[in-house]
Design a protein that fits this description.
The protein is about 35% helix and about 15% strand. It is of the alpha/beta class. A seven-stranded parallel sheet has the order 3-2-1-4-5-6-7.
Length: about 210
């Protein structure tokens, strides 16, 4: 939606404004950098393969992960950001990832890059994100999470024209209950067949 300026087209439709936009971009040839290479990132990377996208990932030790053309370690995050046209945050929130994305990280990104956060709001310093959007260091952003939810009506984020905000809604679909059940079922089967894991659990329980 960001590369195709969908938000602007919705506004044009509301205003009954028939005006062509020749600034549209495409995914082909772009470099997408995922901060985190877990299930969400892997599924997204698998789908992006069909667009001939260069897919980068960042994880703890820079280990190779399926569907990623190259992976970087945590210490190499700026190296990955410098060459990414689109940056996607998809890591868990911990003490170590609190405000991981801050002014220094935004400064390391390419000028007019695109930024997406589908993880947790507190991974991103919100004031620094607002500043990066205001000066157009980040051309556009799409966020499904914020530091304090619901987003305060007085937040500057609401008034920026280069951001798409959704209310922590990206995980919802008609199949979410089925997928949740399938995941729990598969995990239970794996646990049943994993004697080493069961022994560890029993030890922790004092059995």
């Amino acid at each position: 939606e960001m590369l195709k300026n969908s938000k602007e087209f919705y506004i044009k439709q509301k205003n009954k404004n028939w005006q062509m936009d020749t600034s549209l971009l495409e995914l082909f040839g772009k470099t997408v950098g995922f901060i985190g290479t877990g299930t969400i990132s892997k599924e997204a990377a698998k789908r992006l393969k069909g667009f001939d996208v260069n897919i980068l990932g960042m994880n703890t030790d820079g280990r190779d992960v399926e569907y990623f053309d190259k992976c970087y370690s945590n210490d190499e995050i700026d190296e990955m950001l410098k060459i990414s046209d689109i940056v996607v945050v998809a890591i868990p929130y911990t003490e170590k990832t609190h405000h991981l994305i801050n002014k220094d990280r935004f400064d390391a990104m390419k000028d007019e890059s695109y930024f997406i956060n589908v993880a947790r709001g507190s991974i991103v310093d919100e004031d620094d994100l607002i500043h990066a959007l205001e000066i157009k260091k980040i051309r556009k952003a799409a966020i499904d999470v914020v530091e304090e939810e619901p987003l305060d009506e007085k937040s500057k984020l609401w008034d920026l024209d280069n951001i798409i905000i959704t209310p922590h809604n990206s995980w919802i679909s008609e199949n979410k209950a089925i997928r949740t059940f399938d995941t729990i079922y598969e995990n239970l089967k794996r646990f049943k067949n994993d004697e080493e894991l069961k022994n560890k659990v029993n030890i922790n329980r004092g059995y």
